[in-house]
Amino acid sequence: MSAKHTPGPWLAASRPSSVVGLPIVAQTGRSIASVSYFALGKDFEAHDRESAANARLIAAAPDLLAILKHAVHWHDQLRAADIEKMKAA
């Protein structure tokens, strides 16, 4: 059974919302997820930087899945002898 997901691209907001933190949305504007973001000054700077990085990582999920599927496809096309030649090179 294969789970379906909202097609990409997904976008992480460049600025936090006071309601949902950092939203991640589909190209259609549909909400995918939200990452907490405090924007309360110096005491929360490290948290907010990490939250922004997490939001970008979540937003990249459809692209990461696509490239992984591409890599698996090409890996499956290679013969063991070809892989050994590449390793040797």
Can you put this structure into words, describing what you see?
- This protein has 89 residues and is of the alpha+beta class.
- It has three helices and three strands, in the order E-E-E-H-H-H.
- Strands 1-2-3 form a three-stranded antiparallel β-sheet, covered by helices on one side.
- It is elongated and about 55 Å long.
- The model has no long low-confidence stretch (mean pLDDT 86).
- Helix/sheet category: alpha+beta
Mean pLDDT: 86
H/E series: EEEHHH
Q: Give the total of beta strands.
A: 3
Strand order of the largest sheet: 1-2-3
Helix content class: 40-55%
- Compute the separation of the termini in Å: 39 Å
The number of helical segments is: 3
Shape: elongated
Query: Whole-number radius of gyration?
Result: 19 Å
**Low-confidence parts lasting 5 or more residues at pLDDT below 50?**
none
Strand portion, in percent?
A: 5-15%
Main sheet record: 3 strands, antiparallel
Short précis:
It is built from 3 helices and 3 strands. The chain has 89 residues and is an alpha+beta fold.
List strands and helices in order, with pairings.
Blueprint: E1 10-12, E2 22-26, E3 31-35, H1 45-59, H2 61-77, H3 80-88
Please give a handful of descriptors for the protein shown.
89 residues; alpha+beta; 3-stranded antiparallel sheet; 3 helices
